Amino acid sequence: MPAYKRILLKLSGEALMGEDSYGINRGTIVRMVREVQEITNLGCQVAVVIGGGNIFRGVAGGSVGMDRATADYMGMLATVMNSLALADTMRQEGMTARVMSAISIEQVVEPYVRPKALQYLEEGKIVVFAAGTGNPFFTTDTAAALRGAEVGAEVVLKATKVDGVYSADPNKDPTATRYSTIAFDEAIARNLQVMDATAFALCRDQKLPIRVFSINKPGALKRVVLGEDEGTLVHV
Ligand code: UDP
C-alpha cells in the first residue's frame, strides 16, 4: 500500500541529462519514467513538475546580460520541452500522461486548468505541469509547491543529486550527517537549503511536507512512496 494517494514529484531539468553535459539523455529519461510507472502501479496519483536547467536557466550561463524576464521566459519554454519529452517517454512506456502549461501555447500543449488537472489525476493519468508558475522571477521549485498545494498533493517529492538534507555540504564536510526528518522551523534556524525560499515558505504555510531524495538511487522513489525511511522528510 502506498503511503500517499497523491504526490507532486519535482524533477530538476539536470536530472534528465544523466552523464551528458546538456539536454536529454535517452537512457536516463526512460529509467526515470519507469520509476514513476512503478509508483503509479502501486495506485499512487502522480503530478510532475520538471525544471529546465538542462536546456536554459534564466539566471545563469547563456542568459548573462539578458533582460531577466526575457531569460526567464526562455527558461519556462525549456521546461515545456522537457515536459513534452517526459510525457512522450511515458506514452512509449504505456502510460497516459497529460502536459498542462502555465503559459498558453495551445497548438502544442493544453493550458493549465485546475479542475481538469484534478480530473486527470482522478482518472489515474500522470499530469506534467509545464512552464513553471508562468511568471518570471520564480523557479520550478516554487511551481512544485504551488501546484502541489493546488491539487491537494500530500507531499512534494524533490528528487535531487544528493540523497537528502545534510547538516553541512557532504561534498565539503566529511562530518556532515543526513537528517531523516527535520521540521521546517529547524531547517530555517539551521539555514539549510532545501528548496528555494519562496517554495519553502509556500510549503510551510500550506503545511505541505517535502521529501528530498536521490534521483540517482534506483528504487528510491518507490521506497519513498511506500513510506520507507529514504532521504529527508521536512515536516511541519
Ligand atoms: N522559470 C521562471 N518561472 C517559473 C519557473 C521557471 O521564470 O515559475 C525559469 C527560470 O529562468 C528558471 C528556468 O525557468 O531558471 C528553469 O527552471 P529551474 O531553474 O527551476 O529548473 P531546474 O533547476 O529545476 O532544472
TrEMBL record:
<feature type="binding site">
    <location>
        <position position="160"/>
    </location>
    <ligand>
        <name>ATP</name>
    </ligand>
</feature>
<comment type="similarity">
    <text>Belongs to the UMP kinase family.</text>
</comment>
<keyword id="KW-0963">Cytoplasm</keyword>
<keyword id="KW-0808">Transferase</keyword>
<protein>
    <recommendedName>
        <fullName>Uridylate kinase</fullName>
        <ecNumber>2.7.4.22</ecNumber>
    </recommendedName>
</protein>
<comment type="subunit">
    <text>Homohexamer.</text>
</comment>
<feature type="domain" description="Aspartate/glutamate/uridylate kinase">
    <location>
        <begin position="5"/>
        <end position="214"/>
    </location>
</feature>
<dbReference type="InterPro" id="IPR011817">
    <property type="entry name" value="Uridylate_kinase"/>
</dbReference>
<keyword id="KW-0418">Kinase</keyword>
<comment type="pathway">
    <text>Pyrimidine metabolism; CTP biosynthesis via de novo pathway; UDP from UMP (UMPK route): step 1/1.</text>
</comment>
<dbReference type="Pfam" id="PF00696">
    <property type="entry name" value="AA_kinase"/>
</dbReference>
<dbReference type="GO" id="GO:0005829">
    <property type="term" value="C:cytosol"/>
</dbReference>
<dbReference type="InterPro" id="IPR001048">
    <property type="entry name" value="Asp/Glu/Uridylate_kinase"/>
</dbReference>
<dbReference type="GO" id="GO:0044210">
    <property type="term" value="P:'de novo' CTP biosynthetic process"/>
</dbReference>
<feature type="binding site">
    <location>
        <position position="72"/>
    </location>
    <ligand>
        <name>UMP</name>
    </ligand>
</feature>
<feature type="binding site">
    <location>
        <position position="169"/>
    </location>
    <ligand>
        <name>ATP</name>
    </ligand>
</feature>
<feature type="binding site">
    <location>
        <begin position="133"/>
        <end position="140"/>
    </location>
    <ligand>
        <name>UMP</name>
    </ligand>
</feature>
<dbReference type="GO" id="GO:0005524">
    <property type="term" value="F:ATP binding"/>
</dbReference>
<feature type="binding site">
    <location>
        <position position="53"/>
    </location>
    <ligand>
        <name>ATP</name>
    </ligand>
</feature>
<keyword id="KW-0665">Pyrimidine biosynthesis</keyword>
<comment type="function">
    <text>Catalyzes the reversible phosphorylation of UMP to UDP.</text>
</comment>
<dbReference type="InterPro" id="IPR036393">
    <property type="entry name" value="AceGlu_kinase-like_sf"/>
</dbReference>
<feature type="binding site">
    <location>
        <position position="57"/>
    </location>
    <ligand>
        <name>ATP</name>
    </ligand>
</feature>
<feature type="binding site">
    <location>
        <position position="52"/>
    </location>
    <ligand>
        <name>UMP</name>
    </ligand>
</feature>
<dbReference type="GO" id="GO:0006225">
    <property type="term" value="P:UDP biosynthetic process"/>
</dbReference>
<feature type="binding site">
    <location>
        <position position="166"/>
    </location>
    <ligand>
        <name>ATP</name>
    </ligand>
</feature>
<dbReference type="InterPro" id="IPR015963">
    <property type="entry name" value="Uridylate_kinase_bac"/>
</dbReference>
<dbReference type="GO" id="GO:0033862">
    <property type="term" value="F:UMP kinase activity"/>
</dbReference>
<feature type="binding site">
    <location>
        <begin position="10"/>
        <end position="13"/>
    </location>
    <ligand>
        <name>ATP</name>
    </ligand>
</feature>
<keyword id="KW-0067">ATP-binding</keyword>
<keyword id="KW-0547">Nucleotide-binding</keyword>
